[in-house]
Write a structure and sequence with these properties.
It is elongated and about 70 Å long. The termini are far apart. The protein has six helices and six strands; from the N terminus they run βββββαβααααα. The protein is of the alpha+beta class. The chain has two domains: about 90 residues, no CATH class; about 120 residues, Four Helix Bundle (Hemerythrin (Met), subunit A) (Up-down Bundle), CATH 1.20.120.
């Protein structure tokens, strides 16, 4: 059996050691010097199976030419233990994992935390933690937009009065606020389902697109 280094699965998004089930022929792509030796590096297309969801994908790798035969031997002989290659690179995974939402117009902290929350959702982490995190992202975003008030409810209503957000967007923001409050008060809050957490994440994504990305894109268009 031959396994690859940890790689993100494009189907279940888990970072796993794919099991190689098939190997194509190779082509030389370059030479590198490692420990004073010239090593021929080859590019190989492999078929890998995810141990988490059992889906397969095409994974393009680079390995030393002399390691290629060891890889093929490991596929034919389950007991064979190949040596550890001194050079290994995963070049491409097909299909490619869909990237999490992000945009340069977002405030740095909002962008970083929301990227993490999307990864947590993919990894099926605790829904209550995700929803609580979404509330924090929402509040930080609303502060950046100029929402004023002692409480989050006041800041949301302030943005509505200023015309920065619409009534439907404000209503959804209040929904995230209330669900987030429950989660923050009890991190073991079990009434929130993974589907509800996904819905909250999707709303926060749309909120960020509406309030940051779209205005930035419109401003950029007007400059051009």
């Amino acid at each position: 059996m031959y396994t690859l280094p940890p790689t993100e699965c494009p189907f279940c998004y888990a970072k796993v050691n794919f099991t190689v089930t098939a190997v194509d022929s190779y082509k030389r792509v370059k030479e590198v010097t490692i420990q004073g030796k010239q090593i021929h590096i080859v590019e190989v297309d492999t078929l890998g199976k995810c141990p988490n969801c059992s889906n397969s994908c095409l994974i393009k790798i680079e390995i030393p030419e002399n390691h290629y035969s060891e890889m093929r031997e490991a596929l034919q002989n389950f007991q064979y233990q190949p040596s550890r290659p001194i050079y290994f690179k995963i070049c491409k995974v097909y299909p490619e994992p869909e990237p999490v939402y992000s945009h340069s117009s977002l405030p740095d902290k909002v962008r970083e935390v929301f990227e993490d929350l999307q990864e947590m959702l993919r990894e099926k982490k605790a829904p209550s933690l995700i929803v609580g995190g979404c509330r924090a992202v929402l509040e930080s975003a609303i502060k950046s937009l100029g929402g004023v008030g002692d409480r989050l409810i006041d800041k949301i209503d302030d943005l509505l009065r200023k015309g920065i957000i619409t009534k439907p967007v404000a209503d959804w923001a209040h929904h995230v606020r209330m669900e987030g409050n429950e989660s923050l008060h009890d991190l073991l809050y079990t009434d929130i389902t993974p589907e509800e957490a996904e819905e909250i994440v999707e709303f926060v994504k749309l909120f960020l697109i509406y309030t940051f990305e779209l205005p930035a894109r419109i401003k950029e268009k007007r400059r051009s």
